[in-house]
Specification:
The protein is mostly helical. The chain contains twelve helices and five strands. Helix 1 packs antiparallel against helix 11 and helix 6 packs across helix 11.
Length: 296
C-alpha cells in the first residue's frame, strides 16, 4: 500500500484525536494546553520528514514547513486582532502542518460526492471553520439576547461605535449592487454580505458583552484571562493586555483580594473538530451555501 496514503490516514487520525482532547479541555477549562499544539506540530513534521525520505519526495516535508510559516503569521494576525485566543491560534498552526497537502484519500470522496474544490485543504478547513463558527456565534448570540436584560443597552452602544465602518461597508455594498444590476448577478452575494455584516457584528458583540463578561474573585482567575479595565494595586497597575493576565498578575490580585471584571471568549476548538468532519466528507460549505441560496 502507498506509504503516503498510510501517512495521510495517520495524520488525519492524529488531528481527530488531538482535536477531541483539545475540545474537552476548551469546554471544561476554557483553555488549550500548549503541549497539545506543540506535540502535534512535532509529530506531524516528523511523519512528513520520514515519509519524504522513504519516498524521496522532499515536497511532502517542505509543504509542511511552508504551511507552518504561513499560518504562524496568519494565526498571530487572528490572535492580535482577538479573533482567536492563544490556544486556538497555536492549534491552528499545528493543524496547518497536518493538512499542508490535501490528504490523498480525499480524492475518491470528493469525486463521489461531486463537490470538488480547488483551494488548499487547510484553507478549505479554515473557511469551513469560519462558516460554522459564524453559525455557532449567531445561535449563542440569539440565546444571549433572549436571556440577558443588558443586551439592548449593549446593542445600542456597539451600534454607535461602528458608524464609520458601517458607512464604508454600506458604500461597498451598493457598489456591488450596481455591478450586479449592470454586469453580473453574482455580485448580489457580496451586496447582501456587506449590507448585513455591520449588524451581525453588532449583534454578536452585544451578546458577547452581556453574557461573556463576569466579575470574578481572584482565586477563580486563570493565566491568559482578559481583564476589561486597569487595576491599581498599591504602586503597581495591571493593564488590559492582548496576552491576558500573567501568573505574576494573578498572584498580586490574590493578595489584594480584589474582584476583577473578565471577558471570556466562546470555546472555539469544538468548531475546528466539526469543521474537519465537514471538510473531509462534504467540501466547501461557503460554496455550497452560495449555490443553494443563489443557484450559481
Amino acid at each position: 500500500m502507498d506509504i503516503i496514503f498510510i501517512g495521510d490516514i495517520f495524520l488525519v487520525s492524529l488531528a481527530f484525536l488531538w482535536l477531541i482532547a483539545a475540545s474537552v479541555t476548551d469546554l471544561k477549562k476554557r483553555e488549550v494546553p500548549n503541549w497539545l499544539s506543540f506535540s502535534l506540530i512535532f509529530i506531524a513534521l516528523a511523519i512528513r520528514g520520514f515519509i519524504a525520505l522513504i519516498e524521496k519526495q522532499p515536497t511532502y516535508f517542505l509543504y509542511g514547513l511552508i504551511a507552518l510559516a504561513i499560518f504562524f503569521i496568519l494565526a498571530n494576525l487572528f490572535y492580535y486582532t482577538r479573533i482567536f485566543g492563544g490556544g486556538d491560534a497555536k492549534l491552528l498552526i499545528a493543524l496547518s502542518v497536518v493538512f499542508a497537502i490535501k490528504p490523498v484519500f480525499i480524492t475518491n470522496i470528493i469525486e463521489y460526492t461531486t463537490l470538488g474544490f480547488t483551494e488548499p485543504f487547510i484553507m478549505l478547513f479554515l473557511i469551513n471553520s469560519f462558516v460554522l463558527g459564524s453559525v455557532y456565534g449567531l445561535f449563542f448570540s440569539i440565546f444571549s439576547a433572549i436571556k440577558n436584560k443588558n443586551f439592548g443597552k449593549e446593542f445600542k452602544k456597539e451600534t454607535k461605535k461602528i458608524r464609520l465602518i458601517r458607512t464604508i461597508l454600506w458604500l461597498i455594498a451598493f457598489i456591488c449592487l450596481a455591478i450586479a444590476i449592470f454586469q453580473t448577478t453574482w455580485c448580489f452575494v457580496p451586496f447582501v454580505i456587506f449590507l448585513a455584516l455591520p449588524y451581525i457584528y453588532v449583534f454578536i458583540k452585544a451578546a458577547e458583552n452581556s453574557a461573556m463578561i463576569k466579575k470574578l474573585s481572584p482565586i477563580k482567575l486563570r493565566e491568559g484571562d482578559w481583564i476589561m479595565e486597569k487595576i491599581r494595586i498599591k504602586n503597581k497597575i495591571i493593564k488590559p493586555s492582548i496576552h491576558g493576565l500573567s501568573k505574576e498578575d494573578i498572584a498580586l490580585l490574590k493578595k489584594s483580594r480584589k474582584k476583577v471584571i473578565v471577558k471570556y471568549g466562546l470555546p472555539f476548538i469544538p468548531v475546528f473538530l466539526v469543521s474537519l468532519i465537514f471538510s473531509l466528507l462534504v467540501g466547501d460549505l461557503l460554496v455550497i451555501i452560495i449555490n443553494l441560496l443563489f443557484g450559481f
